[in-house]
Amino acid sequence: MNPDFTGIALQTALLLLLAPLITGCIRNWKARLQNRRGPRLWQPYFDLVKFLRKDMVISEHASWVFSAAPYVVFITALLTGLMVPLASTQAPLSLFGGVLAVVGLLALGRFFMALGGLDPASAFGGMGSSREMTIAALAEPALMLAIFTVAITAGSTDFSRIVTSAQQSGWDLLNPARLMAFAALFIVLLAETGRVPIDNPATHLELTMIHEAMLLEYSGRHLALMEWGASIKQLVLMAILVNVFLPVGLIADHSAAMLGLGLAVFIGKILLLSAAVALVETVNAKLRLFRVPDLLSAAFVLAAMALLSMFLFH
Amino acid sequence: MDLSSTTLLTLALLGYVAGSLAGLVFCRWERLANCLSFGGATLAAGCGTVACARLLATGGTVAPVQLQLLPTLVPYVQFTARLDSLSVFFGLIVSVLGFALSLYSLGYARGFFGHKNVGVLGAFFNLMLLATNLVFLSDNAFFFLIAWEIMALSAYCLVSFEHEKPETRSAGVFYFVMSHIGTGCLILGFLLLFQASGGYGFDGFHALGDKMSPGSRNAAFLLFLIGFGVKAGIVPLHTWLPEAHPVAPSNVSAFMSGVLIKTGIYGLARVFFDFLGTPPMWWGVTVLAIGTISAVLGVLYALMQHDLKRLLAYHSIENIGIILMGFGASLMFLNTGHPLLSTLALIAGLYHTLNHALFKGLLFLGAGAVLHATRTRDMEHLGGLAKRMPQTAFFFLIGAVAISALPPLNGFVSEWLTYQSLLQGFGTTESLLRLMFPIGGALLALTGALAAACFVKAFGITFLAQPRSEAAAQAHEASFTMLLGQAVLVAACVFLGLFPTLFLKLLDPLTQQLTGLQISSQLTLANGLVLAGTNPAGGTVSTLGIAVLGIALLAVPFALWLMLGRQTRVRIGPTWDCGLQGLTPRMEYTATGFSKPIRMIFKALFRPRREVQREYDFSPYFATNIRFEAHVEEIFETRIYRPLNRWVLWLSRRMRALQAGSIQAYLIYIFITLLLLLLFAL
Q1: What is the pLDDT at residue B63?
Q2: How many domains are contained in chain A?
Q3: Which candidate in B296, B306, B564 is best for mutational testing of the A interface (most A CBs within 10 A)?
Q4: Contacting B residues, span 265-294, partner chain A, CB-CB under 8 Å
Q5: Which pLDDT score is estimated for B365?
Q6: What 3-state class would DSSP assign to B378?
Q7: How far away is chain A from the Cα of B95, in angstroms, using its nearest Cα?
Q8: How wide is the angle at C-alpha B160 spanned by C-alphas B299 and B633, nearest 5°?
């Protein structure tokens, strides 16, 4: 059972290269929906290169935790990406962990990001950390319960097996349990990636930002890793959504032609979901912080209903 | 020199006795007393660790050993130790933690030189270690109860060590009362077992439940659940725990939170899986429900604390809940006839028991080092310690990651096993009860995420940013032995996180004894690098793989730096302050502020209350003086304990009428009681 090193290298490259594009697409389409021209699709790549070449300013109050956080965020995002099937049903790292490891690693990244927010002694960072951890705490049960619904059906917590079992279920894909679980996970996706109506990725208004508040003191290489990590995390969560609930086009054999086809279908599905995210961001206003729990408990209830209806229909 | 394990264990017990006596004899010479008592405890616990590890490693082949410790003086009261796998496993926990704590105490107790009697501290510390060992090792109910009582009393003395503070005294008395309510239940429970078996030996109690009438069996279950539950700190019997644990000296708090409450877990494991036979369904349901509630409420209350040690004490309630979730699921699977899953859930619970002992011990030691350096436990006065106490900060961070169940450390592994058993449990029954498993799993996820939030707060406010007081600014790193004690526990946490399969082999004799199965080979894949949940298709995880690959992936940022960032420089500058004259510590986020969103979201539970008083000259917006007070209600205390307390006091006032002080009246009472008892016996 040797890990598949080519698979790991290829998937790492895919994650690194595709993630900024998705961020760029959502930004661009959102701007167009709002009658603005918006930044170019590949603007995030330029941003990352620019950040990587810049000098860094580190706060005098910060400790080593501040400098370690970007690496932890970046690496954990990459690791989760290797445990989730993207274009092929077999994730290269599925032996090393499934659903629980992915949730755990994302939590590890968030843990360090929140510490990095607190470290420079600025009130903004503390506020961001506090809100991020609160929202994550409310999103996590909904996320777990929704994934449990599919994991119990598949009898496994391994994403590759979940996806394979979803592929075999045919029209059962449209059963209400799965639809409700999908809806719950979509809300969690918005929360975890800091999107409107929960957080606004475009804001730098001090009192409303959550994710951005934690990154406020980061610059240069650290900022690049933080931003890139966030993009990768977004891609991974989207991949979970599209591949678990719409497992069409995932390939099982690894010839070059099939790989290209699988990749094309995968990117297509991700772009479709990105469009949905851009649309949701445009037609909704940001919620007040203390309204967010209502939305997230709605996600939890949806997930619980998904579980219940699965129980009734079987 | 080749010593057999049993000799080594006896040596360990004698070592505790010697350490205790040395502390008392030399209590006039505090340095000597410190070295001898805590040094003795270190050696004894070291011997105990080796002995227990060896016994556990060979436990699969050796039949349970019985060891006569003291000659029998009174009938029934035999001082016999029992070295079966369950006892030895818990003996291992107390020895490992005892070793690290005694090392730490060598440095920590120096803080008491000159104003407290260190010899007495050492003596009671040794006594507590000894008694806890004996609780785990005792072979009959009498010996068990005697050891249990010595343990409770020595712990009471240690909690009240700094008795000049009123809060310490009241916490000590509260602990004393609660502990004895628990002991009372235990005595009744053992009497029920005695009735059925006719003896007090644990061998006679084995699988006794199947021979008992359902009524007395259920009564025994409830009595033991309450009796051991008080000690373990399950909700709603937990209220003494966050009072008593923080006020004790930190090495004692670490032991109480790490090991002492595990005596309750040991008792529950012993009673549920050894004594009471095949459980009815509702036992498992009750235990799982209590576990889930304890986990969620424990962490929610922990989030509201800004006293570092009190916060950690509440987390003990949470972790006891997680352990009981494993036990409860295991009981349910035993009932439905799924021994394999039952074993998995039991392993999850036991693994978490050891893990919690290690990381909670570690965190309390870190909190102790902070207290030692700054003389305060209040997080609102801390901050910036990562620069002043770098090693302690690093060790505390490891403990925080472990307790938040984040990969790749040990807390993650045991919670992963718990999740696996819960998820696979869904298929074990057709009844609606199976919904308990995924809901329990979701609440476990909530617990984990809230724990992470709580430790971001605990670590972030205490160790990061600017110091919030002069004491924190002047803090110094802890002494060498204190750091060494923490390092031992860090190493154990990392080892149990990265190499779970090696450890699971040690649990084989234990599960053989309790559920009749050995499943470590089924949980192991790829030469022990990968951990699986009973079958590889159900899901696998490799913490070691994650850690190694994570380090390997650092090549990506390194390559990016090589390609693009080699010319860049790093500048140290001030934090952005919105154009003010620099940031002051008063502008930082506080611990209370950090948990405010959660306080507001769960306000139905917390019932937060705040008072703001402003003094101003001409406009309320320009206050000259502000007084702010915020409170959170401890709902169990105000809704259950205080009314109960009032009721008991009322009743005792009424009872006072009986105590007229005349001897004739008392003789009449005795006579009437005797008459009633005789009538009852007829």
Answers
A1: 57
A2: 1
A3: B564
A4: none
A5: 96
A6: strand
A7: 31
A8: 35
Question: Which pLDDT belongs to residue A1?
Answer: 45
Q: Positive or negative CA dihedral for B201, B203, B204, B208? A: positive
Helix and strand totals (H; E) in chain B: 29, 8
Find out whether the peptide bond into B608 is cis, omega within 30 degrees of 0.
Answer: no
Residue B140 DSSP code: B
**According to the model, what pLDDT value does residue B537 have?**
82
Of A119, A101, A1, A123, the C-alpha closest to A62 is A119
pTM of the model: 0.95
Q: Which of B413, B439, B414 is nearest to A152 (CA)?
A: B439
pLDDT (tens digit per residue) in A178-228? 899 999 999 999 999 999 888 888 877 777 889 999 999 999 999 999 999
> How close, in Å, is residue B396 to chain A by CA atoms?
12
Report d(CA B105, CA A156) in Å as an integer: 46
DSSP track, B110-129? GGGTTTS-HHHHHHHHHHHH
pLDDT one-digit tens code per residue, B235-257: 889 999 999 999 999 999 999 99
- Residues of chain A contacting B554 with CB distance shorter than 8 Å: 71, 75
**Quick check: A60 contacting B, CB < 8 Å?**
yes
What distance in Å separates the CA atoms of residue B479 and residue B487, rounded to the nearest whole number?
12
Residue B62: pLDDT band (50, 70, 90) is low
Q: Are A247 and A166 in contact (CB under 8 A)?
A: yes
Interface of A with B in 142-201 (CB under 8 A): 142-145, 148-149, 151-152, 155-158, 161
Which of these, A191, A192, A194, A167, lies nearest to A178 by C-alpha position?
Answer: A167
Average pLDDT, chain A: 91
Closest CA to A55 of B548, B83, B587, B569: B569
> Whole-angstrom distance between the N-terminal and C-terminal Cα of chain B?
64
Instruction: Count Cβ neighbours within 10 Å for each residue of B423-435 and write b for 16 or more, e otherwise.
Output: bbbbebbeeebbe
Q: Provide the pLDDT confidence category of residue A274 given band limits of 50, 70 and 90.
A: very high
Parallel, antiparallel, or unpaired: how do β-strands B570-573 and A56-59 relate? parallel
Give B2's pLDDT tier (boundaries 50, 70, 90). Answer: low
A197 preceded by a cis bond (ω within 30 of 0): yes
Any chain A CB within 8 A of the CB of B337?
Answer: no
For the beta sheet containing B530-532, the strands, ordered from the edge strand earlier in sequence to the opposite edge, are B524-525, B530-532, B540-541
What phi, psi does B82 have (nearest 5°)? -125, 120
Taking the CA atoms of chain B, what radius of gyration do you get in angstroms? 26
Distance CA B253, CA B458 (A): 17
SS3 B619: coil
Which chain B residues contact residue A12 at CB under 8 A? 553, 556
B positions 463-522 inside 8 Å of A (CB): 463-466
Domain that holds residue A64: 5-313
Query: CA-nearest residue of chain B to A159?
Result: B539
